[in-house]
Amino acid sequence: MNPPMGKGSSMEAPFDVTVKLGAQRRCKIWAIGGGKGGVGKSLVTANLSICLALMGHKVVAIDLDLGGANLHTCLGVSIPDKTLSDFLNKKVSNPCDLMTRTAIQNLTLISGAQDDMGIANLKQMHKAKILSHLDDLGADFVLFDLGAGTTFNTLDFFIVADQGILITLPEPTSIENTYRFIKSVFHRKLKLAEELLEIGPLIDKAMNARISDNSTPADLVHRVIEINPQIGQKLQYEINKLTPKLILNQVRTQADVDIGHSMRIICRKYFGIELEYTGHLDYDATVWQSVKKRRPLLLEFPNSGLVHNFDRIVHKLLGAR
């Protein structure tokens, strides 16, 4: 339930997003991620985007699954001619030139790279360039469709978002990978705070503890407060800002639904953070039928029970802090 962090997690200096986090942006960022591929991140991103657009919000969906972009398929759009790689390689100077119209009013797409595998490992300046131009898009909401796993790209974009949304399936490997993702986000966020470097060894010790051990990341705050109350308060502040949202996908039974509540309790106990269970999506074969037809689910099957699932989730996300 608590796998170790991915290889190389301490090899790159933390991405300095502190300025970006404190900046006033006109748009709201929702980042959709998860620890495992195949859980439906792109489908969820597409349909959350559609829901927001149908509510009258101007939405831009950005495919940040770099090297494996497929959000365009879920939105029923052909492979765009211009992608993020053109912007980062300076072939396109204005990110608005990357925006591709969809069949939904108020919703446009910016596609990730299709063939440039090197872009999957963005430099810090590339991440900053993307973030600094978001307001230029003129959107109310920008949704990031993140790649699977715990790469630095994925963690950094998840952390900088106003809403970090995790997608998981009610099956052991997906749940375990979700815990790994949360642990990695926790660790990455702490590393962003330069004031905490002096207690780095203590942080590492807590992060390497297993859920079954006595020492947990939640214990870290209490120990640091005892050593240095001022640092402890800063640490508590950083942890309190971590309020990831959870969506459970492909739910079939009430037992599946209840998994989300159990994960919330475990995260509070182990990490000392509030994982907000935003809702679940029922298993529905129409999902794959819509993908085959290259048509957005909410447009192809408007009477599907998933439409009500998404509507409920979007309204809850809009009301979340």
Describe this structure in words.
- With 321 residues, this protein is an alpha/beta fold.
- The chain has a single domain, classed as Rossmann fold (3-Layer(aba) Sandwich).
- Helices cover 44% and strands 14% of the residues.
- β3 and β4 (107-110) form a beta hairpin.
- α9 packs antiparallel against α10 (229-240).
- The two termini are 27 Å apart.
List the helices and strands and how they pair.
Elements: H1 18-22, E1 28-33, H2 41-54, E2 59-64, H3 71-74, H4 84-88, E3 100-101, E4 107-110, H5 124-132, E5 141-146, H6 152-160, E6 163-168, H7 172-192, H8 200-207, H9 217-227, H10 229-240, E7 245-251, H11 254-270, E8 276-282, H12 286-292, H13 297-300, H14 305-319
Parallel strand pairs: 1-5, 1-6, 2-4, 2-5, 6-7, 7-8
Antiparallel strand pairs: 3-4
Helix pairs in contact: 6-7, 7-8, 8-9, 9-10
Task: Quickly describe the structure.
The chain has a single domain (18-319), classed as P-loop containing nucleotide triphosphate hydrolases (Rossmann fold, 3-Layer(aba) Sandwich). It has 14 helices and 8 strands. It has helices at 18-22, 41-54, 71-74, 84-88, 124-132, 152-160, 172-192, 200-207, 217-227, 229-240, 254-270, 286-292, 297-300, 305-319, and strands at residues 28-33, 59-64, 100-101, 107-110, 141-146, 163-168, 245-251, 276-282.
Identify the notable features of this structure and list them briefly.
8 strands, globular, about 325 residues, 14 helices, about 45% helix, Rossmann fold, disordered N terminus, 8-stranded mixed sheet, alpha/beta
